[in-house]
Design a protein that fits this description.
The mean pLDDT is about 90. It is built from eleven helices and ten strands. It has a four-stranded mixed sheet with strand order 1-4-5-8, covered by helices on one side. The chain is globular and about 75 Å long. It has helices at about 5-25, 25-35, 40-50, 70-80, 90-100, 105-110, 205-235, 250-280, 285-310, 320-330, 335-345; strands spanning about 120, 135-140, 140-150, 155-160, 165-170, 175-180, 185-195, 195-200, 240, 245. The chain folds into three domains: about 5-90 and about 105-115, Butyryl-Coa Dehydrogenase, subunit A, domain 1, CATH 1.10.540.10; about 120-200, Butyryl-CoA Dehydrogenase, subunit A, domain 2 (Beta Barrel); about 205-345, Butyryl-CoA Dehydrogenase, subunit A, domain 3 (Up-down Bundle), CATH 1.20.140. Helix 5 (about 90-100) runs antiparallel to helix 7 and helix 8 (about 250-280) packs antiparallel against helix 9. By secondary structure, it is an alpha+beta fold.
Length: about 350
């Protein structure tokens, strides 16, 4: 199947690329990541809302754009290219689940306008295996703990997964920040003793898993694109023996592998996003395969980018390590590579 973005989707991609290049150059993002404990710039967040990016998949009746997974992947790819810090992916996932559950228009309107943050608390621990529920409804109240809840310190509300379904819990929350080497994101352990509203049954987890996989894979695609271009530029300018080091065949072979991984990831991401939008029977398999392949490709491309930059590739001053750390986080969270492979095998009936 030949897949190409529509004219509107191409315009969305160019608009997002121009906006993020102007608003979030990496030198500005580095200051946010290193100095701001919130992990994002609220002023930039409001400009994302003004551009309509916070409500891409939210129904128009709730103040959103009413678009699909392909458009979300387009914007997340551009977020990955600039290594944008902040909870954009996490808020997009929460908004998609709230929209799928229905009946949350006032909260979605606040979310789309940038006036509130809502993220998912799902025990998305960075290891393989089944999730162990650590929060549940007890005597009418949500009690227990969740780990690796993204941006929980800044969230007004959390969508919490339990064995009985998904619940909406309003803050404030008892939060313990978790250390991470990826300063573009923030994780926390959250202790619950809250009243909560039932959003929907456990079956909502299936869509949440698929959208999370496609979204994280799209960010990884943007990271791969940036590092591929950055490395190619370096190989064309760095000289050895009076010639660019990119002229050496061994490095050309390694660059060819990086290009292959990047373009194959692109195909997997947009195939999976399209499957979600049209309700294709292979959506579960496509989403799991896209995330697993993107995570594996990111490990190779990020490592090669650092290695081919030579000694400077290991320095703090070079920006490559920010992308490497972002990729490692995305590889392990939103369904780790090992977990996605298990889901892909199950979806394929193997």
């Amino acid at each position: 199947m030949k897949f190409e973005l529509s004219e509107d989707q191409l315009l969305l991609r160019q608009a997002a690329r121009d906006f993020l290049a102007a608003e979030l150059p990496l030198e500005r993002s580095r200051r946010v990541m290193e100095q701001d404990p919130r992990g994002y710039d609220p002023a930039h967040w409001m400009r994302l809302a003004d551009m309509g990016y916070l409500g891409l998949t939210v129904p128009a009746s709730a103040g959103g754009q009413g678009l699909g997974a392909v458009e979300l992947a387009v914007v997340l790819e551009e977020m990955g290219r600039v290594c944008a810090p902040g909870p954009y992916l996490d808020v997009a996932l929460a908004a998609d689940l709230l929209g799928a559950a229905g009946g949350n228009e006032p909260l979605l309107q606040e979310l789309c306008a940038g006036r509130t943050l809502v993220t998912l608390a799902r025990d998305d621990a960075p290891f393989a295996g089944e999730r162990t529920p650590t929060a549940r409804l007890v005597q009418g109240r949500l009690r227990g703990r969740k780990y690796f809840a993204p941006f929980a310190s800044e969230a007004r509300a959390l969508v919490v997964e339990t064995p009985d379904g998904f619940y909406l819990a309003e803050g404030p929350f008892d939060v313990t920040r978790l250390e991470t080497f990826d300063l573009a994101t923030r994780f926390a352990e959250v202790a619950f003793d809250h009243s909560a509203t039932l959003l929907g049954p456990p079956a909502l987890a299936e869509r949440a898993d698929r959208v999370a996989a496609v979204g994280a894979a799209a960010v990884l695609l943007g990271i791969l694109e940036h590092l591929l271009a950055r490395t190619r530029e370096y190989l064309q300018t760095r000289q050895a023996f009076r010639r660019p080091i990119g002229a050496f065949q061994a490095l050309q072979h390694r660059m060819a592998e990086m290009l292959l991984r990047t373009e194959s990831t692109r195909s997997a991401v947009y195939r999976a996003a399209w499957c979600l939008d049209v309700g294709d029977p292979d959506a579960a398999l496509a989403a799991a395969a896209a995330k697993a392949y993107a995570g594996d490709s990111a490990r190779l491309v990020c490592g090669e980018a650092i290695q081919m930059h030579g000694g400077i590739g290991f320095t703090w001053e070079l920006d490559v390590h920010w992308y490497f750390k972002r990729a490692k986080t995305l590889e392990q969270h939103y369904g780790s590579t090992e977990r996605q492979l298990a889901w892909a095998l199950a979806a394929a009936g193997l």
